[in-house]
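Below is a complete specimen:
___
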Amino acid sequence: MTNESTYSNEHLQAFLDSVSNLSLEHKFHEWYNVEVAAAIDGCKIQGHEVNSDSGSSLIFLRKSVVLCVPEKGHIAHYPRHLIHCFIDDYRHNGKQDDGLVMRAELFSISPSEEQLGWEIQCRSEREVPDVQSSVSRWLKWLND
C-alpha cells in the first residue's frame, strides 16, 4: 500500500470514527459506512466536520467539499471555487435577540435546492474558540 493510499484510508477511517460517535439510528450509521464510504473511496480527504445535532457531515477534499445528510440520504458535492465563508461576531454589539454570540457559515452559489449551508454558532463566549477553530480550518482549506 502506498503512502498516499494509507493517508487516504486513515482520513476516511477518522471520518467514519467521528460519525460512529454520533447518536444516530442504525440505518444512518450503515448509510455512512456503506454509501458515503463508497462515494468518497479513494478521495484525498483533507478534513471533516460532523454536526452532532443533525447527524450531517461535511468532508473537505482537495478542491471540493461533500455534504452528507443521512435523514435525506443526500450526498452533495460542491467545487471549492463556489464556496464562501461568512462570520458574524456579535460580542461587541451585544448578543442577538436569540442569544447568539457568534455565527459562521460556509455556503455555495448554486441553485436554491442544491445550496450548501453549513452553519455553526454559539451562545456562550466559552464556545467562541471552537467556532474560531472551525473557521480557521475552513479558511485554510479555502485558501490552499
About this structure: The radius of gyration is 16 Å. DSSP finds three helices and seven strands in the chain.
